[in-house]
Amino acid sequence: MRCWARGASRLSRPHSVAYLFAGEGSYLAYVDNIADSGHENTLGLYNVLVKQVVAWNQPDVQELWDTLRHEVAHRYLDLAIGHRPPRWLNEGLAETFAACWNTEGKFAAGRMRKRALATFLRSPNLLDISSFVVQPQEEFLKKAEIGYAQAWALVHFLRFEEDQRIYDRLMTDLEQGANPLLALEQNLAVLDRGDFNKRFLAWLNASLSEFQRK
Q1: In what helix (H) or strand (E) does residue 213 lie, and over which residues does it extend?
Q2: What is the dihedral angle through the alpha carbons of 68, 89, 5, 35, rounded to the nearest 10 degrees?
């Protein structure tokens, strides 16, 4: 997972717990007791307090594995840098990791998140990036679908398309215990520049055009 979350150190690998529920009813009853106020996914979650990954063993195997990869990424981030990143970054990193597998279960870093691209086609109005990265969790979750899509797009762009030194410095600062808001302010100051926004939107529009052609 290190090749995906570049900048995170090697971990001591403490024991991790995952629960897979046979039915949706038992899963929902369990997570009702451990889900935080920001929980929005009825398929799986990672709880930072009890350190558990939980998921419903749904009939769609590909969706199940996608959910598990997303939630396991949250567990890894908790181990690597603590549960301190803003919601958009935490979800964006998890979405970027989950996207690395194709439908056959083969890994390749930097794969596109098709569900995010489909979301952009339905809801093309993005929040201004400089506002997006500082919004509180409550605002992020008000429009969770487009929020997750934009979080993936920004993290993917920083990690795989843009100068990776920006991403590396941000992750290293977070890993070393820097204040998350200060780390964002120092490392993502480039987001206020018009040329960054132009490059980001140009990449996203090109990605959407390619997605539509397939």
Answers
A1: helix 194-213
A2: -30
